[in-house]
What does this fold into?
Amino acid sequence: MTTRIRLAGGLLLGLMLAGGAFAHGDVQPQPVNTDGLESLGTEWKEENPYRGNAKAVTVGDSGYNQNCARCHGLQVVSGGLAPDLRYLPTGKEGDEYFVERMKHGAVVNGMTKMPAFDGILSQEAMWAIRTYIEAKHEE
Ligand code: HEC
It folds into this structure.
């Protein structure tokens, strides 16, 4: 009886992992509503213009949970599929790294592990997401 339950559990987990792997190459980005945030123009900022902005945290919360959470985990707590973003450096150093990743995504051995978000999410949406992630920062 117990063995059977364990087997079923293992199978289910296997299916979930397989499904997750499929979903990776086929990500459908979700638009982020950035109404109420100052417009930033087309030139990329080097530093987060919204740091500490409460509205940006709210916008970033929804933007993150729609576009990043499936890999990086709900509420920025990684389940192990992708790095835990709570540990990204804060301040300008973390900003530069963040923007690079957002522009180029991550391609490892020719496989897209993370899609590029340049041209898909607005600069406003990306910095709002960064503000949200930084609000969740852990040492
Ligand atoms: C399809 C899965 C997937 C999605 C969606 C995704 N990422 Fe990633 N991300 C990854 C993986 C995998 C890595 C690690 C790549 C590597 O091995 O270098 C990564 C790396 C990163 C890094 C670098 C982290 C570090 O510690 O080096 C940042 C920053 C990041 N992602 C931000 C985001 C943000 C913000 C979003 C949403 C807008 C997002 N990602 C959406 C899979 C994803």
